[in-house]
Design brief:
The protein is an alpha+beta fold. The protein has 2 helices and 6 strands; from the N terminus they run E-E-E-H-E-E-E-H. Strand 1 and strand 2 form a beta hairpin.
Length: 81
């Protein structure tokens, strides 16, 4: 699933839906290195508890994953992301 991000392209979104009626919804914020398997597991556990959970992939630009180290400082020469 994706959402339109400031008219600059699609932002990927991991979504987990409960099998039963939705008790509520929450947004799960990613770790420093993006939406990892742990973050996806958090979404799945929230869905198992009855919540709709969504985790936006914030380290993307127009659908392409960008280097998280460049978000806060200049890109290091050793960065291979």
């Amino acid at each position: 699933m994706t959402i339109d991000y400031l008219n600059a392209g699609d932002l990927p979104l991991s979504v987990a839906r409960p099998a039963a009626p939705v008790a509520g919804a929450l947004i799960v914020i990613q770790e420093a290195f993006g939406v990892t398997s742990h973050i996806e597991d958090v979404c799945l556990r929230a869905a198992a508890a009855g919540y709709l959970a969504a985790a936006p992939h914030l380290f993307t630009e127009a659908g392409t994953r960008c280097c998280p180290t460049t978000t806060c400082r200049p890109r290091p020469r050793t960065c291979r992301h």
